[in-house]
Amino acid sequence: MVVDYAIVGLKFSTQDATKTAKAAEVLHGTGSMSQQVPSLPIFPTLIEALRSARYVVVLTGAGISAESSIPTFRDAQTGLWAKYSPQELATPQAFRRNPKLVWEWYAWRRELVAQAKPNPGHLALAELEQLVPLFTLITQNVDGLHQRAGSRNVIELHGSLRETYCLSCAREYIAPDVPEGLPPACGCGGVLKPNTVLFGEQLPAAALNQAMAASVSCSAMLVIGTSAAVQPAASLPYLAQQHGARTVEINPEKSLQGADFFLQEKAGTGLETILAEVKKILPRTPAI
């Protein structure tokens, strides 16, 4: 299936991403033949790419949050939720059928997130933002850990567990200031829904357009803790490649075809290693 996404002056499809990946395989080699970065010493060419980057964009997925003990959708659920599949709960149909059950599941997820703390990967990205001229963090996660770590310029592609809105009047509530009840009700009487993207729903247009614009404009992109398989987020690294950006993947297993650099590490370990090297050559950028 080919899916087209458009922003001002640009049209890009998942078919384009496939073509870019195949071209990159020819240029950089496939599998282990691409530039796999050892933990120590790290490739000087990778650090030079970040040092010279005018604009760094980061794309993160569930893998970085998993290091804060937040289960991914691929992980087995626990306790009461062991008998449910997230794909069965996180759909518009499930919410219409049984909003109370879906809200109970979201309450469980919010409790997990509230107990979690940003891990070294989150903290390293927040510090990296202070070291480069321009920086945007695009995340597929809804837990808010990047912001809690100190990251400021964050695009949340899939929404946020902190936010809730009324299906009738569109009034927004920010946790913990959400009316009680399961499901909670708005002052107008409408049902409240967590402001996260459910399976089968479109991504927020503003967030997606911002992410695509950042991908087009960046000179380096870090892809961290994501399988790079779920569209349209999976297309962003290839969009960056098409416009000349160097791409760096940090993952336990390789998933991004044609990445310029691949660091086979967990997010925290890989980012701390990169940050330590970058700090040796880059001064801290004053906060704006």
Give the SSE layout.
Layout: E1 4-7, E2 10-13, H1 14-28, H2 44-51, E3 55-60, H3 62-66, H4 86-89, H5 92-97, H6 99-115, H7 120-129, E4 134-139, H8 145-149, E5 154-156, E6 159-166, E7 172-174, E8 192-196, H9 205-217, E9 220-224, H10 236-242, E10 246-250, E11 261-263, H11 267-279
Parallel strand pairs: 3-4, 3-9, 4-5, 9-10, 10-11
Antiparallel strand pairs: 1-2, 6-7, 6-8
Helix pairs in contact: 1-10, 7-11, 9-10
For the structure shown, list the relevant keywords:
288 residues; alpha/beta; Rossmann fold; SIR2/SIRT2 'Small Domain'; 2 domains; 6-stranded parallel beta sheet; 3-stranded antiparallel beta sheet; 11 helices; disordered N terminus
Summarize the structure.
Helices cover 36% and strands 18% of the residues. With 288 residues, the chain is of the alpha/beta class.
Task: Explain how this protein is built.
- This protein is α/β, with parallel strands linked by helices and 288 residues long.
- The chain has two domains: 197 residues, 3-Layer(aba) Sandwich (Rossmann fold); 81 residues, 2-Layer Sandwich (SIR2/SIRT2 'Small Domain').
- It is 36% helix and 18% strand.
- The protein contains eleven helices and eleven strands.
- The strands form three sheets. A six-stranded parallel beta sheet has the order 5-4-3-9-10-11, with helices on both faces. Strands 7-6-8 form a three-stranded antiparallel beta sheet, covered by helices on one side.
- Helix 8 links the parallel strand 4 and strand 5.
- Helix 1 packs across helix 10 and helix 9 packs parallel to helix 10.
- It starts with a strand and ends in a 9-residue tail after the last helix.
- The N terminus is likely disordered.
